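Ticket opened by: R.M.
Priority: normal
Category: complex prediction / small molecule

The reporter submitted a protein together with heme C and asked that the result be attached to this ticket for the collaborator who will pick it up next week. Submitted input follows.
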Amino acid sequence: MLHRAAAILAVTVSACVARADGGGDAAARVFTRSCLPCHGTNGSAPLVLDSAERIVRNRRLASMLVEDGTMPPSIALPSADGLVADRRLSSEDRATLLAALAAGATDAFDAIKPSTDGRAAPAHDAIAPARAWTMPASGGARVRTFLAPNPSAARVRGVRVADPGARAQLPIRMMFLAADPRGTMRVLDAGDDGGFEAMGNVGLVPSGALGALSIVRPSFELPPGFCFEVPAGDIAIETIGEPIGRAARVLPRVAWIPAGADDTRPVRALAIPAKSLLLRADTCSTIEFTHAARADIDVVAVIVKGGAFLRSAEIDVRNDVRNDVRNDARAAGNAAPTRLLTVPDYRMAFAEPWVFTRAQRVTAGSTIVARLGFDNTADNPQQPSRPPQDVEGGLPPLGEDAMVVVLYAEAANSR
Ligand code: HEC
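Result attached by the on-call engineer:
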């Protein structure tokens, strides 16, 4: 299931092994901080590593994944003002962890502190489509969109996977939600097998407008004060799934997280799509696309959608030239851009919605700039074609459709 370069499978544990037994509880501390939040009993990862014995039993795979940067997954670099949590391992912590894993002694991990919470209980009021779809045993990633009835309008803070760990959930890597109150997509959903093969955008409303969930982040919550206003009607749930080696029934089930009395600022979605994408075989390319803000907005989350070829993302806010004579730097057009998000190692299978710790103001006249890096060479570990072929816009695994969805609230609402 995991994507990694074959070359890295030959694990090379570096000279740091020399410190194998001198680390005291250091390895346990690193593991508790950087791995247990997801690998504890209540975490998002299917593999539970909540005891020293379990960690040691899985140590070869664990070192491999730490070495090639797959674990911890889905790293966004922290911006200067701390908008996203920093999940990186420092090189020292990485060395400590790898050394303890290589030594293979359980006492290095005896001091880990697993949380005792159980997994989230299944939700009784789950939003789910009527029929499951059968994903074939093998092949590349698939996009499948389902429609699920949402009986009544609701103000929600977010959404979560209703029954994490359930079999019908296993092949799903990511889900993007959008409301279809008029039922315009029902006609697509008429077949016997659940769902249809298309993006889950509803007209101009991008899928992701009601948030997104992923294997890395099975629960999505807006920052305090914000909410989604979900109308009654259909919810389109776009899923990206990966075959798990046997045919599997796939059925997305999600549950709303209700909004509190103070969560009153409605959040909307802005889509910045990569238009007429063409990725030449054997080349890497960076594509920049922009959106000019017409009013002051507060950005609360960013969703980066891409397929096998998307490998990095940078989202900036650029203050363009203004008729503002009092501000010379801006008038000259050299105000430094504000970095919203940097994802240096984007992997479709480990992507997540990036929710900011607090809203980021983007003023009218500024431009949101998305710079996406694509790799259509044989070096891309997710490359579906040997040798690489030219790639155009379309569904994965062979096509690429990249889009940045910005979730924001109008700034005027805050006053
Ligand atoms: C943000 C959540 C998160 C963090 C933090 C995290 N993992 Fe994972 N890990 C996952 C998920 C999700 C999977 C399942 C991947 C899959 O099914 O493809 C996984 C899979 C694994 C696997 C098993 C892979 C397999 O093929 O079954 C190992 C081993 C692992 N992680 C080790 C670690 C170690 C060691 C750390 C700490 C350095 C870590 N993980 C940190 C989410 C996380």
